[in-house]
Amino acid sequence: MKHIRSLEFPLSDGGFELLSFYDIRSSAPGPVLAAVAAQHGNELNGCAVIRQFARHCSENPEFRGRLIGVPFANPFALRRRRPNSDMGPEQPYTETTRNMQTHWNTTDGNEIIRLAHFWWEKLLSEADMLVDIHCYPKFNAPVIVIRPNSEKWETLARISGLPQVRYLKRETDWNGSLRCKAEDAGKICLGIELCGQYEIFDAEVDRGIRVLENLCRHLKMLPGEPEIPLEPPVVLESRVPVYAPISGLFIHRRGIASGIRVKKGDELGVMVDTATLEEIAIHAPEAGYLTTFAGRSDSDVSLRGHHRYCFVDDILAVIVPVGG
After folding, report:
1. Among candidates 122, 112, 144, which has minimal Cα distance to 131?
2. 190 and 37 in contact (C-beta within 8 Å)?
3. Burial 71-108 (b: 16+ CB within 10 A, else e)
4. How many whole angstroms separate alpha carbon 14 and alpha carbon 66?
5. Do residues 130 and 36 make contact, with C-beta atoms less than 8 angstroms apart?
6. Is residue 230 a contact partner of residue 179, using CB atoms and an 8 Å limit?
7. Most distant CA pair in the chain: distance in Å?
8. Three-class SS of residue 32?
9. 65 HSE (CA, 13 A, CB side)
10. Strand partners, 253
11. CB 188 within 8 A of CB 153
12. How confident is the model at residue 324 (pLDDT cuts 50, 70, 90)?
């Protein structure tokens, strides 16, 4: 089994960027699975997932087929420690021309457009199936993104073991996503969002490894059967926001976090008025699954988005109703 290979990506200044990846090949026949991480430079859990899983496969004598592991798809953004390589402080994702996730169906342009094209032409087109690993902010629960109305996609979502599934139609997807690029080539690319950015979270790394291991077992690349949770994933359809009734500091109840189920009426925390110290308890208006808790938009690029001071009608939590 060969473990590490490298490619030289030509830069516009005449130099090159060394792109290295794990390439685990077995003498036993089997599918080719590619796992890709760090299209965005602040999403690091997938890097650790691929490193550890590649080692696991390389040490398993029963591994079959080939695993392509790209832990650092976008080293330019990674070195800037930001989602995209042209972003400054507190700049939203939308204000960029170098979002790699939107450039897989373009062949020429800036360095990131050419980088995505290079990865596909030189390596990823060889895969039978791809897994594109991303990371939501820590306030969101993990999710797998699949196409609707497809038994094959549904099966893969169930096998992944992730707690939430999001249906995304082709016509509303980014045409430049790796998912669409793979689909145009007759392949499936599963998009998964782990939880937490800028750091490496052990529990999320373990979760990502389980996803890849389950998929490899399903594809008969590893022995054994996938370990599938008893509860089916929650479908991200209707969502119930929980609003702040006053301005003040939101203090969550211990044990409450995104990714858990709550009953109607469960206390989620309290709002504390910073002027009067009045407290108002916040309760779940519906039974369901906490898909978002105590975060806000742009928390992936701004520390202010992490702050627990809330204004009236700020969203404190989002619940997906599931009954109970």
Report:
1. 144
2. no
3. bbbbbbbbebebbbbbbeeebebeebebbbbbbbbbee
4. 33
5. yes
6. no
7. 71
8. strand
9. 21
10. none
11. yes
12. low
User: Strands of 261-262's sheet, edge to edge?
Assistant: 240-243, 315-321, 288-293, 261-262
Report yes or no: 37 and 53 within 8 Å, Cβ to Cβ: no
Token duo for residue 92: 């939203």
Half-sphere exposure of 29 toward its Cβ, with a 13 Å CA cutoff? 0
Per-residue pLDDT at 295: 85
Enter the tokens of residue 167.
């249906």
DSSP 140: B
Residue 156: closest CA among 216, 207, 101: 216
Contacts of 23 by beta carbon, 8 Å cutoff, 6+ apart: 2, 3, 4, 5, 66, 67, 68, 69
Half-sphere exposure of 168 (CA within 13 A, CB side): 19
CA distance 67 to 50: 10
Helix and strand totals (H; E) in the chain:
6, 17
Per residue in 43-87, pLDDT tens?
A: 999 999 999 999 999 999 999 999 999 999 999 999 999 999 999
Domains of the chain: 4-218 (3.40.630.10), 238-321 (2.40.50.100)
Which tokens hold the place of 207?
A: 């979760």
Return the pLDDT at 107: 86
Alpha-carbon span 131 to 156, nearest angstrom: 11
Question: Residue 149 burial (CB < 10 Å; 0-12/13-18/19+)?
Answer: exposed
Q: Which residues contact 27 (CB under 8 A, 6 or more apart)?
A: none
